[in-house]
Amino acid sequence: MSGRARNILFIMCDQLRFDYLGCAGHPRLRTPHIDALAARAVRFSRAYAQSPVCGASRMCFYTGRYVHSHGASWNDVPLKVGEMTMGDYLRPLGLRTALVGKTHMRADMEGMARLGIDPASKIGVLTSECGFEPFERDDGLYGIGPDGRYDEREPRYNDYLRELGYAGDNPWHDWANAAADDDGELLSGWFLKNAGRPARIPNEHSETPYMTRRAMDFIAAAGDQPWCLHLSYIKPHWPYIVPAPYHALYDAADVLPAVRADSERGNHAHPVFRAFMDHRVARVFARDEVRRAVIPAYMGLIAQIDDQLGALFEFMADRDLFADTMIVLTSDHGDYLGDHWLGEKDLFHEPSVKIPLIVFDPTKAADKARGTVCEALTESIDLLPTFVEALGGEPQPHRLEGLSLLPLLRGETPPHWRRHVISEYDYSLQPAARALDTGPSASRLFMVADARWKYIHAPGFRPMLFDLQNDPDELVDRGDDDDCHEVRQTMQAALMRWALRACQRTTVSDEEICDRRDRPADDGILIGFWDAEDLPQPLRRTYRNILQKRH
Amino acid sequence: MSGRARNILFIMCDQLRFDYLGCAGHPRLRTPHIDALAARAVRFSRAYAQSPVCGASRMCFYTGRYVHSHGASWNDVPLKVGEMTMGDYLRPLGLRTALVGKTHMRADMEGMARLGIDPASKIGVLTSECGFEPFERDDGLYGIGPDGRYDEREPRYNDYLRELGYAGDNPWHDWANAAADDDGELLSGWFLKNAGRPARIPNEHSETPYMTRRAMDFIAAAGDQPWCLHLSYIKPHWPYIVPAPYHALYDAADVLPAVRADSERGNHAHPVFRAFMDHRVARVFARDEVRRAVIPAYMGLIAQIDDQLGALFEFMADRDLFADTMIVLTSDHGDYLGDHWLGEKDLFHEPSVKIPLIVFDPTKAADKARGTVCEALTESIDLLPTFVEALGGEPQPHRLEGLSLLPLLRGETPPHWRRHVISEYDYSLQPAARALDTGPSASRLFMVADARWKYIHAPGFRPMLFDLQNDPDELVDRGDDDDCHEVRQTMQAALMRWALRACQRTTVSDEEICDRRDRPADDGILIGFWDAEDLPQPLRRTYRNILQKRH
User: Fold this and answer.
1) Is ipTM beyond 0.90?
2) B357: three-class secondary structure by DSSP
3) Of the candidates A338, A342, A337, which has an alpha carbon nearest to the alpha carbon of residue A272?
């Protein structure tokens, strides 16, 4: 254990619920390797994603800023050129910052063209790749439909599969994310009905082990330079399909009952919630047969990740990397899996907006907090300032909006920790916006939550409100309950403070502001002086000398 | 009069009060050439600056976005690289976009370095110069003090003066902005006591005529390409000193009584207002001798601008440029001049935050509104979308936050015109922040005003509130008046709507949002389908073909 972290291993899963881990209390799922990490780390039990959708959430992790600040509010909304990303903060501290897996980054090609940045140049690639050196970029969804490919890029993983003899123009789909029926006919992993079958490839050829090996390749090749590796698994995100033996680890008996009540669908339902319950994915997850087919596969995908992390941690231990590597395990958001009559993510119930967050700090100072669970309110934007502080960098609160977790990792409780967390959702690209006829800029939701209440501001509609203390399952929306008027006002005021925060004055540090404030009138710009006698000493003498010299 | 504007002449004065024009009703000041323009144009009587300070206000004009959006919240806060500016919108429409005079732009050198943009390259210069080709950049303040120069750049204007024989290392100060006593000793224009004396140079060598000639140089040289020329006078901004005969056009008898009441300084004074009344410039303008010395010079500077605009308009008329040139005359903010016990600008009383705004639209469609006064609530950010529309460009509401004035210029009243205007102020660099002990991010003010009420949200303090209808001089702060509780709530809600607006999703147009929303599941990413039977036709057939082909 050294005095300061040297490397960062930043592991992200995609769509991993906060409560689908052994250490988080799941009664059936076994995740021994993640649990072992948690036993050496701090697990944050109230960590929230800044937006319950991949792209927007990730851009918050990578920029350390809220969606309302960086603007990439949904999948495939380009992150505008100029927004600083993780690499911009960590490279000056001497780290090589690399990616294995998914970022969901869409480059701002128009902005880059406007500024004359060649996308093929070194800076162009970093700008396009959200600040990461793309050791292995793979967003993990390669659909083909009548409009062509979803992503123009051909993943290296497809080449890898082809070299192994898996034929076709999209082996990602046809082998890794498909099953076969009893006659050997291809059954697409896109269809939930096939979730219980094994993928058409052996475990070692599937995505999670492939990405783990690529991470090891990077670490082995990294040499003497410190690094930040973002190992970003595509799973347990859909297509919900997993190779043997993981497809059979769990079955319908391991599926927990859905957390939902008929009253949620009643007349009282909030219009936006209702519109989301009408989404196809919500309707399909309302069917028990779907949950019974999908959830065991989802659990198998998590077990597969856990085993791979076991291998990775062993690889790291062999290289003594636990001595100086900070390790983070988190997810970009959760998955409703039928809870609250919903599928996917998008809204702000805990299964969707809460994320697992485990942080291992290798330093001695962290010893006393190892194995503890921290209930402080944390946000995904806290990671980047944590990394900066762990590596000895200067805090940059004028652009990084999160709080360093370092004190919490070392068992200290900062006196002024945040009292509210924020999450946002832009549903302008969703069918709900069509159904509600909300315009492209009006289709937005804002969550503000404290330790007890979760308030959701929905412009154009009444708010939603949940009492996490007395209704931890969030089954009763008290958004128009007269008894909660004051709570709503308090939460609304907290949201207002947040909305008006200074989040765009990113070009001047707070120190520079204070420094400039403390030396007015010294730069020869004299404001409000009747005559030279009004000048303070010694400025009066200096200025007279200047005037006389000039004269 | 053609069907569409071809050129834009965008004239800005610095620190020109909205009510210091003949056409705006000033009882003493004569501005016949500006009045003549207003007689052919529309004068907006309720136009507001987005921030009552040079740099922040100008960045709003140039980006078409609020301070809260672009972040350059005070003077010398660099506008971050990537923010689009006027040139980025107008050059694609075929215009050459050039500057003569001041922008107060500070380049984001750190951001440019991060993106590998060479400041000396064409794009680097445009990025540094806020999107303008710097035909003649001159910010007009060249102080020298113990810390050296205020601005590293040497203005061409100094060379011009030296060529004429005005000696010294800063002829801008020693001649153009200084007077002489009866013995010929230099009297600095920085000292208000000297405001009544003539500058040490003849009118034709002073800054306003020089800049006017440079504007003519540009127009004469522009050739066939349409242009947008930003003619940005430094005056009537301080140093308050003007050459003969303008120094003697007005005297103390022309000075209007200060709009102020003893009650404003009483115990009831808002803490932030009180802290600003304690600024040196405020205390000096509280003295009548200061107002008597300064205001005639201020009026002389305006009269000088008016005469120069007369010459410019004649030059343009000779070239038939009124046929196809949109002409704007405005200012970045006002000047308290002792009203409300304040000097300079900074706060939100009308003399500070309201701006003159005259817009001449050369097209026939505008004929019916010529010479009218429009009372609609307008903002400085409205100009850029006005230019874009006038030139036939596409509206871009996903990044331009203002509203095109074109309907108003043509006598039409849009059914859903804005009901509130916003202005902001970051006082973190001011002595008030020291006095109030507000932190670098907390020292901010937000004004929201409708046709009757002006509400000022001051985080950490109670709000301010003025009734513009019954108290047009804004002498009674009703920020804690129980009778105004509902008004405050209404204004607070308007501010909340504004604060939560989608202002950073600038990389995707509203059209693209709607277009993408309307074609889900067509890109081969299939979410929430139990099996192929669930697919809508014709996607089902297509997908089967794809699957079969692959198989």
Assistant:
1) yes
2) strand
3) A342
